[in-house]
Amino acid sequence: MELNVLLDNVPGVYSPADVELIQRAFRVAEMAHTGQTRASGEPYINHCLAVAQILLDLRVPPAVVAAGLLHDTVEDTPIKIADIEREFGTEIARLVDGVTKLDSLPRVSRSDNAELDPVDEESARAREKSRKAELANETLRKTFLAMGDDIRVVIIKLADRLHNMRTLGYMPDEKRRRIAKQTLEIFAPLANRLGIWQLKWELEDLSLRYSEPDAYKEIARSLAERRSQRETQMSRIVEELHEMLAENGIPAEVSGRPKHIYSIYKKMYRKGVVFDQVHDVRAVRIIVKDVPSCYSVLGLIHTHWRPIPGEFDDYIAVPKDNFYQSLHTAVMFEDGKTLEVQIRTVEMHENAEYGIAAHWRYKEGKSRDADYERRVMYLRQLTDWIQDVDDAGEFVDGLKTDVFGDRVYAFTPAGDIIDLPAGATPIDFAYHVHTEVGHRCRGAKVNGKLVSLDTALATGDKVEILTAKRGGPSRDWLNAHLGLVRTNRARSKVRYWFKRQDMDQNVNHGKAQLERELRRLGIGEISLDKLARDFNLKNAEDLYLAIGIGDLSLSRVVNHLTLTERGKKDFDELPPFLRDAEPAETVTFGGDGVVVQGLKGLLSTMAKCCNPAPGDEIVGYITRGRGATIHRKDCPNALRARDRERLVRVRWGETQTTYPVAVRLQAYDRDGLLRDVSTIIAEENINMSQVKIDVKQNRAVFDMTLDVANINQLIRVLAKLESLPNVMEARRLRPG
Ligand code: MN
After folding, report:
1. Distances (CA, A) of 734 to 557, 565, 568, 584
2. Which of 147, 181, 658, 698 has its CA 20 to 30 A from that of 706?
3. H or E segment at 691?
4. Per-residue CA distances from 456 to 415, 421, 729 (Å)
5. Ligand 1 center to 151 CA (angstroms)
6. Low-confidence residues of the chain, pLDDT below 50?
7. Hey, what long-range contacts does 168-174 have (CB within 8 A, 24 or more apart)?
8. Cα 3 to middle of ligand 1, angstroms
9. All residues with CB under 5 Å from ion ligand 1
10. Distances (CA, A) of 550 to 488, 493, 716
11. For residue 360, how far is its CA from the centre of ligand 1 (angstroms)?
């Protein structure tokens, strides 16, 4: 690609000075990258030009395009930020600096303990892998921190990622898959959250192409086969709609809406339908001049063709949470097949395609600036907890729930809508209403009924929070295993509350929590000062404090204890976790070592036609009455399967080793206690291999042997057992 091509596409609103700026940025970038090539063998500058082209298509301001051309200079060439600033001014320098900071290698993480020599090659590889993952997460964390400062930096980053995805084919296979997965999990949802459909769909399609190459090829092939037939069909439909609207005096632009491969893939696999079922649904888009016309068009369509019940959505009156607006409906068309219709104004269309970047497309009109501010505010709100999280892994989990996850909309008694991530509890709701309401939340009524505080709210729920006159949150709310608080926003507010408490109190609480956990798990005699140093803390007291204010979670501490123990270098004085417990049994689900996801325990057999072997990509086919047959993913029989809804995702199972652990639970006896205990154990998929119950007067002691897979599972089940009514204590019995 050449500069001329780029300049040919410059939007009309750019002035000659803007064009000159872009030319200058190009010259500097070209000189800086001289001699560098991409993995494809192309000159490096082509990447910079491609990124600038993607940005130009979004019609971002010229300074952003210039920064796009320069985005890799500071990272990869001798050019310094100061040079850029001298040459191009502070604004562009700041943008380039922002993108560079995202890419530069982050600090060495705390848990990356350099003194620990890898014991063997395998654990060295595992450690390297987790280090890489952590670095990637850290980059993401920075991306989002940058988003708070300047959205434009993130848009450059997305353009960069898109071009990297387009050229991913030149990367080694393993890297390809890793990058594709990350793009699908983080960058495509990010583009979606910013409302930039133009970037989102292409990121998704490219991710699928590299993460599920077979499925991608299969869908692309089917699409190509049916293309011409579909095009004739679509042009007939479009023509008919056009005529109908013209007869009624409504000027409108009607077009067929292409389906993207990833969206077809999602429908096929999530809804378990065959390609033709997805493909048979035609979709059109009607663009009109104003909102009243949208509703007129809707009325006309519903009188001409029979609307399909349940398919009408009014996203004009109630926009989606990325500010998307449109009317959606589906009707039964003359040929008896479904026709999906989207109706929107020109402005809504720009918004739907370019999202937050639409703001730059038209310079006139103040309403767009107000819109932009609203979007930026909303993103800030979604991400206001980010500053408080410095564990990169925790951060990425938070992102997936708080920012990218599905949303639920619940109502206050006054009828205000509270927008929450799916899975949010009444306590999350309370904190979203007001921090004080959160702190003093003691109970909740959902739709008039008292519920427990770990209940997940659903859209449409009316939630009434019962508050205490004074007092603060409970420390249990920070215990992730209890699931009382699920949003990071609420969690950071709870933490903040505890941080403000008196230091001694926090130390005491932290100490009590840690001691209780260690006692529960039967871990004793460890050097707490040494443990503290592993977390870069001075001494045991600081360790207690960090736990007390919620900066350091107990599960991280316990994980660390068990992990270093596997590393075998340090902590010789530690009584090894589960040293006394010999592996009891090897559980294999579904025979032949195959785990059938979602159908655990289903009898499965290997298909004779393709004889899958461990390591092959596989797919399951549910047979009538004989369980599942496992085929290779590329097996022609599986690909040709008529009943596609019988195809299920499967993967090779790991044989799971469990350890018998003696657990004692003490409680005041009550009706239903045993049932509650066994329900919790069953929900964790733990096998209870022995149980002895001793009831004297009203005191009950349960001595159980639980076959647990790992320490996290043990921690979780003990915490859940202890939170049952009437239970005083649930802990692991010390051996001997
Ligand atoms: Mn780049």
Report:
1. 20, 18, 22, 18
2. 698
3. strand 687-696
4. 19, 10, 26
5. 17
6. 105-119, 364-366, 564-591, 597-600, 736
7. 168/206, 168/210, 169/210, 170/38, 170/39, 170/40, 171/39
8. 17
9. 72, 160
10. 13, 11, 18
11. 23
* CB of 409 closer than 8 Å to CB of 417: yes
- Give the sign of the dihedral formed by CA 449, CA 452, CA 453, CA 456: negative
Asked if CATH classification 3.60.15.10 holds for the domain at 660-732, the reply, yes or no, is: no
Degrees (nearest 5) of the Cα angle 381, 386, 392?
150
Helix axes 346-354, 197-211, angle to 10 degrees: 40
Q: What are the C-alpha distances in Å from 600 to residues 388, 540, 590?
A: 39, 44, 7
Per-residue confidence (pLDDT) for residue 386, from 0 to 100: 67
Structure tokens at 434: 């007001």
State yes or no: is 280 an active-site residue.
no
33 Cα–ligand 1 center, Å = 12
Please answer whether residues 274 and 647 qualify as being in contact, where contact means their C-beta atoms are separated by less than 8 angstroms. no
Cα separation, 144 vs 641, in Å, equals: 43
Domain boundaries, the chain: 3-100+150-211, 223-361, 406-499, 503-566, 569-652, 660-732
CATH homologous superfamily for 406-499? Beta-grasp domain (3.10.20.30)
Locate all alpha helices (DSSP H) within 623-732, ordered by sequence. Answer: 636-640, 673-683, 711-722
Q: Please give the distance, rounded to the nearest whole angstrom, from the Cα atom of residue 22 to the centre of ligand 1.
A: 17
Decide: helix, strand or coil at residue 117.
coil
List of E strands, 346-440: 407-411, 417-421
Query: What are the structure tokens assigned to 199, written together?
Result: 């970037």
Which string of DSSP letters, residue by residue, matches 414-453? T--EEEEETT--HHHHHHHH-HHHHHTEEEEEETTEEE-T
Distance 166 CA to ligand 1 centre (A): 12
In tens, the pLDDT along 297-346 reads: 999 999 999 998 888 989 998 888 778 899 999 999 888 888 999 999 99
Catalytic residue among 18, 30, 76, 83: 76
This prediction's pTM:
0.63
Ligand 1 center–CA 398 separation, angstroms: 26
Amino acid letter, 204: E
Please state, in angstroms and as integers, the Cα–Cα distance from residue 476 to each residue in 358, 393, 481, 613, following that order: 44, 22, 9, 47
User: Are the C-beta atoms of 705 and 689 separated by less than 8 Å?
Assistant: yes
The single residue of 30, 42, 57, 75 carrying the catalytic annotation is 75
Are the folds of 406-499 and 660-732 the same?
no
Question: How many angstroms does the Cα of residue 288 sit away from the middle of ligand 1?
Answer: 39
The dihedrals phi and psi of 527, each to the nearest 5 degrees, come to -85, 110
Query: In the annotation, is 76 catalytic?
Result: yes
For the structural domain made of 3-100+150-211, what CATH number should be given?
Answer: 1.10.3210.10
Architecture category of domain 223-361 in CATH: 2-Layer Sandwich (3.30)
Q: What is the pLDDT of residues 369-393, one digit of tens each?
A: 677 777 777 777 777 666 666 666 6
CA 29 to ligand 1 center in whole angstroms: 12
30 and 38 Cβ atoms separated by less than 8 Å = no
**Which is it for strands 282-288 and 338-345: parallel, antiparallel or unpaired?**
parallel
